[in-house]
């Protein structure tokens, strides 16, 4: 195999000393700083910033009105209009979850219950929000439309236990979802 020898290109005097590149970068930075101080920085009005750049001042300004339609937030469970659980403990969301943040313990519905035609319901349903990567796969795989991603980005807690959302908390923050639920369909 032949060896190819490459020669470095010769630099002229201006390229050997970096003053030209330094002045060019300084001028560009100074231009952006002046535009920012005048309140004319690019993107500032789109983010409703304070005028001191494109950075949103977080506690006072929120993303709520600037959220795109495709934003995926934290997963939650929802009930139907009559307050019934939509989840049938099929465990598809648990199996498909890449970081294994969902843990479901299924249970039987008593035969004297008016909704006993449904085979199972979750006894426990936990989502570890520290492990969740907000991928949306749990929402996509759910056949009963029981789990949804809400547009919430402010999930805080002071301990790891507070960041594990149990079934009660998931239903509390999820609320009611109106529409067809497959498990209550009479033809099923």
Would you mind describing this structure in some detail?
With 188 residues, this protein is an alpha+beta fold. It has 2 domains: 14-58; 75-184, Alpha-Beta Plaits (2-Layer Sandwich), CATH 3.30.70. It is built from 5 helices and 5 strands; from the N terminus they run ααβαββαββα. It has helices at residues 13-16, 19-37, 92-96, 137-141, 167-174; strands spanning 75-77, 102-108, 120-128, 147-149, 164-165. The strands form 2 sheets. A 3-stranded antiparallel sheet has the order 2-3-5. Strands 1-4 form a two-stranded antiparallel sheet. The longest helix has 19 residues, at 19-37. The mean pLDDT is 83.
Note the main attributes of this structure:
188 residues, alpha+beta, Alpha-Beta Plaits, 2 domains, 5 helices, 5 strands
């Amino acid at each position: 195999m032949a060896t190819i020898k490459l020669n470095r290109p010769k630099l002229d005097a201006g390229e050997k000393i970096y003053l030209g590149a330094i002045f060019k970068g300084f001028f560009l930075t100074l231009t952006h700083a002046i535009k920012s101080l005048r309140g004319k920085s690019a993107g500032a009005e789109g983010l409703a910033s304070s005028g001191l750049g494109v950075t949103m001042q977080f506690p006072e300004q929120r993303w709520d009105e600037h959220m795109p339609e495709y934003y995926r937030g934290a997963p939650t469970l929802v009930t139907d209009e009559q307050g019934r659980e939509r989840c049938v403990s099929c465990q598809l969301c648990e199996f498909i979850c890449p970081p294994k943040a969902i843990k479901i313990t299924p249970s039987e519905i008593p035969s004297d219950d008016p909704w006993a035609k449904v085979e199972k319901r979750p006894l426990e349903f936990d989502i570890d929000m520290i492990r969740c990567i907000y991928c949306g796969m749990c929402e996509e795989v759910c056949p009963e439309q029981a789990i949804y991603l809400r547009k919430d980005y402010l999930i805080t807690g002071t301990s790891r236990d507070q960041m594990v959302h149990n079934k009660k908390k998931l239903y509390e923050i999820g609320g009611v979802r109106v529409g067809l639920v497959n498990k209550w369909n009479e033809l099923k």
